[in-house]
Amino acid sequence: MMERLMSVVTTARNMVSVPFVDLQAQYALLSDEIEETILRSLRSTDYILGDEVEIFEQEFAAYCGTDFAVGVDSGFSALELALRAYGIGPGDEVITVANTFVATAFAISSTGATPILVDIAFDTFNLDVNQLEGVITPKTKAIIPVHLYGHPAEMDCIMDVAGKHGLIVIEDACQAHGARYRQQRAGSIGHAAAFSFYPAKNLGACGDGGMVVTNDPRVAKEIRMLRNYGQREKYLHSVQGYNRRLDTLQASVLRVKLRHLDDWNSERRNHAELYGRLLGGSTVEIPLTSQLTEPVWHLYVVRSTVRAKLQAWLDEHNISTGIHYPVPVHLQPAYRSLGYHRGDFPVSERYCEEILSLPMYAELSPTLIERVVEVIVEFGQDKP
Ligand SMILES: *Cc1c(COP(=O)(O)O)cnc(C)c1O
Q1: Is the CB of 348 under 6 A from ligand 1?
Q2: Residue 222 in contact with residue 85, Cβ under 8 Å?
Q3: How far apart are CA 136 and CA 114, in angstroms?
Q4: Distance 276 CA to ligand 1 centre (A)
Q5: Which has the closest alpha carbon to 133: 103, 110, 178, 165?
Q6: Whose CA is nearest to atom 10 of ligand 1?
Q7: For residue 382, is pLDDT > 80?
Q8: Would you tell me how many other CB atoms lie within 10 Å of the CB of residue 196?
Q9: Distance CA 228, CA 242 (A)
């Protein structure tokens, strides 16, 4: 009888599934507000660069602690237009990291400049600041540090090196909405910063969106022109521009969600703390955080030397995971022309084989985290 009951309990537990992210859970909480604001935007017919865009820009700048914010259609455009606003283009070199989402490097290439990569540090997953000076040449114009997984990069050191060599710093804050470095918000430390509002980001639209923040009025003005066909006034095109505008509809949704961002980020921090506590002593390496930073845990990334088996084991137990990212930038087929080889960035290459992103989203519950950890611990026991 007892055995039967135990086996029923075990079966029930095995049927619990844990998604990697759960956008449905967030939508369920905000559906009334979101539907109401979308309907209002629809009825206003103010679809392109409407009032909601301008208000959201002001709110987001205030949130980040910057003077200006300019809404664009994606994180990619935010990075690219920021580079262009600083006059970066063909013949220039821009330094970034080998372990990032490829968009960081593609934004550099799109301007005609060349991405120059450095490795990540062992303990942070972020740019190894000790490698910066070694790759600076007379062609270097800018550095793009990436606050990967929501952990701010070592900005003090990066700003020092940039200052010494007269370089621009554009933060890739696409995974770090609301993170802090020495009390300052991610995005407010460099000359400019790029954010993405891709739906699964900490602050996500119902579609694509992005933002550049900066304290430089010239750069803000330039990006406002570049995103809208280079127009300073209607049908007068001062520079060759693009169509990279943020939709009014998306801005209205993002205004609703911005009000919840701090709460969501603090939930993510609680989840990370629980994962860290429960996974201590298990066979996976847990992520470290620097004393100087307040990360926002866009992703919770552990490392395992038997990653493929661990991921399959979790999958068998209905726990979804991800790999961010499986192939470093320098080994992407698209970048064969950069001339990098396997072995050039050993930490990034090794981590690409070992990293595993566990379920992480604000609405995740302690019970589900306990379930994820239980399955990882069982794996450790059964499959050393
Ligand atoms: C998501 C992301 C981008 C690109 O943002 P999109 O809005 O998808 O264009 C750039 N860099 C990093 C680190 C990202 O995570």
Answers
A1: no
A2: yes
A3: 12
A4: 26
A5: 165
A6: 103
A7: no
A8: 29
A9: 6
pLDDT digits (tens, 9 = 90+) for 143-160: 999 999 999 999 999 999
Residue 255: per-residue pLDDT: 98
Q: Of all protein residues, whose CA lies closest to atom 2 belonging to ligand 1?
A: 174
Flag whether pLDDT at 251 surpasses 80.
yes
> Does the Cβ of 124 fall within 6 Å of ligand 1?
no
Evaluate: CB of 76 within 6 angstroms of ligand 1.
yes
Whether residue 241 is predicted with pLDDT greater than 60 in this model: the reply is yes
* Environment class of 98 (CB within 10 Å of its CB; exposed 0-12, middle 13-18, buried 19+): buried
Ligand 1 centroid to Cα of residue 145, in Å, is 13
- Residue that the structure tokens 């120059």 belong to: 116
Strands 68-72 and 210-214, bridge-based pairing: antiparallel
Residue 313 backbone phi and psi in degrees, to 5: -60, -45
Backbone phi and psi for residue 318, each to the nearest 5 degrees, phi listed first: 65, 30
> Binning pLDDT at 50, 70 and 90, where does residue 384 land?
very low
